[in-house]
Structure formats: structure tokens, C-alpha cells
Amino acid sequence: MKKNNRPFYCYLDDFDELTIIVPIKNYHDINKYFLVGNDEIIKLNISQKINLGAEIKLVCFFDAYIDLGKTYFVENQNNEMSELYTGKIVRTELFDNVYQYKKNDLGFTYTKTSTKFKIWTPVAKYVKIELGSSKGDSIIADLTYKNSGVWRIELEGDYEGYKYRFIVFVNGKESVVQDPYAITSNANGEYAFVVDKSKFYQMEYNSDFSGSLNDAILYEMNVRDFTIDPLMNFKNKGKFLGITEEGILTENGLSAGIDYLKELGVTHVQLMPIFDFEGVDENNVDLKYNWGYNPVQFFVPEGWYSTNPNDPYARINELKIMIDKLHENNISVVMDVVFNHVNDANKFPYERLVPGYSFHVDKQGILTNISGCDNDIASHRKMMRKLIIDNVLYWAKEYKIDGFRFDLMGLIDYETINEVRQELHDLSNHIIMYGEGWNMYSSNLTDRMAHMANKKVIHTVGFFNDKFRESIKGATFKDDLSGYTMGNTDEIEIVKQMLLGGANNRYMFKYTTQSINYVECHDNLTYFDKALYITDDINLIEKQQLLGIAMVLLSQGVPFIHSGQEFLRTKQKDHNSYRSSDEINLIDWNRRDQFSKTVDLVKELIKLRKNYKCFKLKSTSEINQAVELIELKSKSIMMHFNQKCNLLIVFKPNIQEETIVIPEGYGIMLATTENYEVEEESSYLLKDIGAYIFRKE
């Protein structure tokens, strides 16, 4: 029956409640309604009548068991009928409990003699699978419903290399659905594939990282940006394999690519999204650009970064090779994951499999848009939580991922985040976890979300410390407003708190591992571009930016560096380059030559952090005993450690000359500027912007 010919519409809202929507022209008070199906005729009792203007809404109750796998109709005394669709029932707690599936075998399970497929959809009336071989053979077969909402089929024979997708009938229509647990696909995700895991590249190396989160030095990078520079001789530009290429040199003969990462000394690279995303054409890789924060297939590596996106093994093996090469070079890998929204809610497999289940809706049943992406994943629902946890564990086990950065983590419930954290702990104590903990909800949902205000219940997870960024660099959304490193000392009290891991303010963290310290990331203006709104003096900006990096690396908490930040990366003042050109987003390796002295100083600062435990104190009580901060007349800040470290650091944000007297026995160890003089023992004249590090001999 065509939708526009239906006399009314009806939706199952609970196990004993349904709603009938009757166009006003078809409504009569004398009408009676019955639920018909599964060999039963059930009287409906109308409890509410609501006038919606053009329609009348009837809320009805009934006393019967509903089998969601069966087709039901609502019929009136005139024999007019309409198929019953599933409505709000999918968002009830009872639905979540009844149809929770706990086993870890969704998707396909392959052997050479048979392949088993399982997919979750408690409300489908039928499910079929469509398979095709490379020879053109095709199969359509019916799945059987078992329990807990799961349909299954086991096909005898060897189906390795077969493409597949599902056909489901839900809410009166048939649709094609991709497997939400697919692990590889052809270009642009038209089909998933059955693959033999024994043919995957066998990874040889593991991460050598054996610390906790505050032992990490994080380096955010984009797979394409890192090697796409047209002036560099990477063979696999913009690809996973490009990052594995050794011996790549800049024009001046300096290291680039993976050799540069190793030389720089960071412990972890944080890769911007590497699972399958929308916004690019995998068959025409130079047509469009996208960062990848619009996920499509959570378990599938992105084909844009593969040398052959139509080969289901290539994207898997090339990613594994890249990670293995990074591990071989003692560089751990963090994966940027996006579980707060999907690219298109209507195309998301679970929305087609179980309409209305996967996303938050408002009181009118309309999708919320807190993420700004037209949908917000309801992570607290059990099968969405399972999808997230299964996904993280899959990447950790199959690809040896060493950490996870959660995009807009404040839109994910903290029970899910805690369960992910616990599962990862069971795998390894050294897998790290952190995310964007912005408090974005204004409703009662805020109480259950994984944002900074709820840090006490997720204390083993890190949060990006935007207060650190704002006070030290300057306001993100006010281009010409400078922060401490650009000479604005108005918020010096906050800056001092940030140096101690964010203590004694509303962002206070009990543990330093909760504070991810940064002044630049992929979002918003780079430090260099923001500074250009304030001054055109490149030499001055270089000193200021180096001071900012020094404060990131020498503060309590977890240091985070945006790739290229250490050689003054520019995006030509592009505030949001998520779909801008390669020209805007690429790593310009010429700047590595241009600002090589700054790079060398950053290397030294990284070594310093690695070699001194006093930069990795764990709690505010420990910090209070070990660190003293002194504000100097010029608004420079002196940070003095106790005998455990025997270091003294001065952060100087201006060019005002200043004589400092330091404790006896301390001498200059490292300075980010050469513009200072030793006036006499224990007395120094500091003339320039920079970080000055003294050590007791």
C-alpha cells in the first residue's frame, strides 16, 4: 500500500502501546481500531486523543504479546487498514534489554569450508544476503532469525573474495544495507567483502611504549598531508605506504617523513581518522579533500589512503605495514575515532536495520544536532555501546593500535567510555585513551556524558585542556587576541595553573594524565597563522611559537604537538581546512629547512622531558610538594623543582630585559634563545622571549 493512500499511520511505541495518526479528513469519533496479526485480533483501547491540526493522534493500549518479527496491521471497523511500523519502542529500556546481543561474532566468520553471516535487526520481517564472486556468480539467500535480534546464515563452500551486502524488509519497505561489522570493502563502500585473515600482512613489531599517558609525547598528523608535498620524492604520496618510506630528504638534505618522526623523538603519532569516511572519492583521489570526521564504515580502513581501494586486502595490509614500520622505529600509534555522529544518519546501517534506535531525538522525535553534523549517536543504547567497544577492541587487537583519541567525547556517555577503558586495560596497561571533553549538552543528558565536569568518574582518561590553549596562545575565536606567549600577561594566574596541570580552577584535574596540553591542533588557526593577525614579524613569531611549544613540553600533563607546528606550519589563515585543498593542508617540508634551528630546539626539549621524571608528576599533591612557581616583575614565570629534579625554568613572554638571580650551583643548561648574558655567578640578564632552563650541577 502506497504511503499517500494509507487511511492512517500507526507506530508501535512500547510493548503494550501504539500510536495512530489519522488525517483529519479521515477521522471520526465513532471509529474503533483493532490490532491484527500473528493469527490474533486484538482490541485497542484509546487512552488519549490529541489534535495536531491537520491530524489526530490516538494513543492506544492493548493486552497482547507482540512478535516484532511478524507483520501486524491496525484495522478499523470499515476494514481500512495500515501496516504497523516500529516507533518509539526501539528506544525503551525493555527493548534494549530483550534484544541485547552479547556474543562477539556479528559480521562474517570465514573458513575455507563455510562462511557464517550474522546481523542484528530485531524489527526486520525478512533479511536476505546478496553475494557476488569476481567471476560474476551471484547468490541471494535468506537468513534465519535466531534470538536477541540476530539473523544468521551459514553457507557451505569457500566464499573468500566474495562481495556481499544485505537486503532487509523493515517498516514496510525493502532496502539494501551494508554490514555494520564489515572489515573491508571496495572503493566508496558499495560492497563489503569476505576475506581470509590468514592472508593479512603479519605484523612483526609491537610498540615499545611501557609508560602511562603522561609519559607520552603526542604528535597529531594526517596520513595524506604528511607525504603529499609535490616537491618531495615520496613514491606513495598521500598513502599509508608513504609513511613507511625511509631516506626521504628535504632540499637542504634534512630528514623528512618517518626518519624525521624518529629523529624528532615523539612517542606517539595520533593519526587523524583512518577508518572509512565520506567526503572523498576513493576512485579519484585528487578530486576532493577531507579530514575524515564523517564516518561511514567503522571497521574498514580508509581506501583513500590505499594504493588500490578496490582490492579488499590492499587497504588492510597497507595500514598494517605502516603501523608495523612505525612500531619498528619505536613510534606508537594513536587512532582518532569518531563515535559521536555518522556521516549520514539515513544511510547508517543500524538506522535502516532498526529505525529510530541509534541516535538521540528530541521530544518531537527529531534527530538532535549537538555535534553540528545533523545527528548524535546514542552511545548509551546497548547495541550502539557494543558497536563502539567491539570496534575499539578490533583495532587494538587486529592492527595493534596503541591508543585512542575520541572526537567530541563529551557527546559519548561515560559508562561507555569507562567500559572501553576497562576492556583496553585487560589487553594492555599501556594503551592510552583521551578525547575532547567539551560539555555540549544543556539537557539532563549532560549528567551522564564523558566531559570534563564528569572527570571524577573517568579519571583514567585524558581531556584536551582548552584553557591551556586559550591562556597560552590566545582566544581561538578572536583572531587578534593574544595569549601569554604573545606578550599578553593578563591571565598569568591561569597560566601558572596550567603549568601545574590545571590545578585550582574549574578545569582542575586531580591527576596530570587528565590534562592534554596543547596550543595547536588540526582545528582552527595554526599558531603561526593566528600570530600573523597580531604581527608580521616572522622572527618574533618564531620565538613566541617556540616558547609555546616549550610550555607544552615542560608543563605537568600530557604534551600534544600538531604536525609541522615545530616548523611554524601555516594553512594560509584557513580557520577550518577540513575540506580545503592539499595546498592548504599539506606538510610543507621546505619550512623544515627554513626553521631548522627551531626544530633542533624542539628535539632538545623533547629529550629533556623524557629524561626528567619531574615533568611527569602524577597528582596535584605531588606537584605541590615538588614545584614552586614564582612570578617575576616582568611577568615572566620561574618554575623551580625540588631536589628530585634540580631544574629551574624561566618562561619569558616579552623582550623586556630582566636580571634574575637563581640558587647557587645552578647553571644554564638550555635556552630557546641565545640572547642572554651571565652577569655573575647565579645572576643572568635575560634579554629575549623564550624558555630558559637551568640545572644544578
Compact description:
The chain contains 15 helices and 35 strands. It is an alpha+beta fold and 697 residues long.
Overview of the molecule:
With 697 residues, the chain is of the alpha+beta class. The protein is built from 15 helices and 35 strands. Helix 8 crosses helix 9 and helix 11 packs parallel to helix 14. The protein is elongated and about 105 Å long. The termini are far apart. The mean pLDDT is 95.
Question: What keyword list fits this structure?
Answer:
697 residues; elongated; eight-stranded parallel beta barrel; Immunoglobulin-like; 26% strand; 15 helices; alpha+beta; single chain; eight-stranded mixed sheet
Helical content stands at 10-25%
Strand order of the largest sheet: 4-3-7-8-1-2-6-5
Ends: how far apart?
87 Å
* Poorly predicted spans: none
CATH architect. name of the domain at 96-199: Sandwich
The dominant shape is: elongated
Calculate Rg over CA atoms.
29 Å
Class from helix and strand fractions: alpha+beta
What is the mean predicted local confidence, pLDDT? 95
Number of strands: 35
Number of distinct helices:
15
In terms of topology, how is this protein built?
Layout: E1 9-14, E2 17-23, E3 33-37, E4 40-43, E5 45-51, E6 55-61, E7 73-76, E8 81-86, H1 93-98, E9 107-110, E10 114-120, E11 126-132, E12 138-142, E13 144-145, E14 150-156, E15 163-170, E16 173-177, E17 192-193, E18 218-221, H2 223-227, H3 257-264, E19 268-271, E20 275-277, E21 295-301, H4 314-328, E22 332-337, H5 349-353, H6 382-398, E23 403-406, H7 414-427, E24 432-435, E25 462-464, H8 466-472, H9 492-499, E26 515-517, H10 527-532, H11 538-554, E27 558-562, H12 582-585, H13 589-594, H14 596-611, H15 620-626, E28 627-631, E29 637-641, E30 647-652, E31 658-661, E32 666-671, E33 676-680, E34 683-686, E35 690-696
Parallel strand pairs: 1-8, 18-19, 18-27, 19-22, 22-23, 23-24, 24-25, 25-26, 26-27
Antiparallel strand pairs: 1-2, 2-6, 3-4, 3-7, 5-6, 7-8, 9-10, 10-14, 11-12, 11-15, 13-14, 15-16, 15-17, 20-21, 28-29, 29-30, 30-35, 31-34, 32-35, 33-34
Helix pairs in contact: 6-7, 8-9, 11-14
